[in-house]
Design goal:
Length: about 325
């Protein structure tokens, strides 16, 4: 087995082999499956770790996230440069990724067969401590393309009794949001237990996560504009995708959209206006809705637009019963 110079690190390509590292030694692991003595397909993840002695990944978490207990130890001992000493949260610069991903490309990540196979105890362990438990409450808010999770964190305290989830395609960004939530749970006991995130492609797998009429709010904040006309089919708001969103939204459920690209704003508004199951929310309702104020201020993209003095274009529509 090759070894790194001047380090005390031992690695194995077996799935169940232990991983040990000397304190504060950063390495990049590439885990591979070993089938019948031969190296099989690449699995799970590639990520940079900073481990202290015998810290391990929690096998029950998706994409190799650290468990809340392990994250608490890292916060206490300050063993990772990924953690800010002032905010005690993960640092974004270690999780940067491309601004956008191609939603039509094939990505490899676990997808539940149906909504009843979504593991609530994995996402909300305080609410569902056992996987055998019957779920009396279900996810009601979905932030599609949640980015670094700013809106989710704000909504979590605004609606503490409502389960919500962010859906993000980029793996590094998803990992950041997961570890941000874990850190907030450690620093604020009893809070942020109603929020989670999953890496998935919402343009393909929305029906795998949500039942008919399950959601009451869906958010599409600063989505990829896909400027070229040939790429408009990649836009997350489109007439055929609105059919799926209408299926998962309850009657009276709301879709919130915002962008700083005027052409995209008009596109999303036209798609929603032309769909028989959506109608525009009236101005007086928008003024009374506390969520509307967060659309342009809670996310990193919204804050950037505000700093640069840019303009935003909102379209907020309600799910209705189509008239015959």
């Amino acid at each position: 087995m090759p070894s790194a110079a001047n380090t005390n690190v031992s690695l194995s390509l077996s799935q169940d082999a232990p991983v040990t590292a000397s304190p504060s030694f950063s390495i990049t692991l590439l885990l591979q499956a070993v089938n019948n003595g031969g190296v099989g397909t690449l699995i799970c993840f590639k990520r940079t770790l900073t481990l202290k002695m015998k810290d391990h990944f929690d096998e029950n978490t998706e994409q190799g996230s650290l468990s809340t207990v392990k994250w608490g130890k890292m916060l206490k001992n300050e063993v990772s440069p990924h953690i800010s000493k002032t905010t005690r949260l993960p640092r974004k610069r270690f999780y940067r990724a491309r601004a956008h991903s191609n939603p039509l490309s094939d990505s490899h990540f676990p997808v539940p067969v149906s909504p009843c196979h979504v593991d609530y105890c994995l996402h909300y362990p305080q609410h569902f401590p056992s996987s055998d438990q019957t779920f009396n409450s279900k996810i009601q808010f979905a932030d599609i393309g949640c980015g670094f999770g700013g809106l989710l964190i704000s909504l979590s305290t605004l609606f503490p009794k409502t389960l919500m989830i962010g859906m993000e395609l980029r793996d590094k960004v998803t990992e950041y949001v997961k570890e941000r939530i874990l850190a907030l749970r450690v620093e604020n006991p009893g809070q942020y237990q109603n929020v989670s995130v999953v890496r998935t492609n919402s343009m393909k797998y929305i029906p795998n996560y949500f039942e008919k009429g399950q959601l009451s709010k869906m958010f599409f904040l600063f989505p990829d504009p896909h400027f070229k006309e040939k790429n408009h089919r990649r836009r997350v708001i489109s007439p055929h995708l609105l059919d799926e969103y209408a299926y998962t939204l309850c009657i009276g459920g709301i879709i919130y959209t915002i962008t700083d690209v005027e052409e995209l704003g008009e596109w999303m508004k036209d798609c929603l206006e032309g769909h028989p199951m959506f109608e525009a929310v009236r101005d007086e309702e928008l003024e009374a809705d506390p969520v509307v104020k967060l659309l342009s201020s809670a996310t990193e993209e919204g804050q950037k637009v505000a700093r640069n003095g840019g303009h935003t274009f909102q379209a907020v529509y309600k799910r209705v019963v189509p008239s015959l």
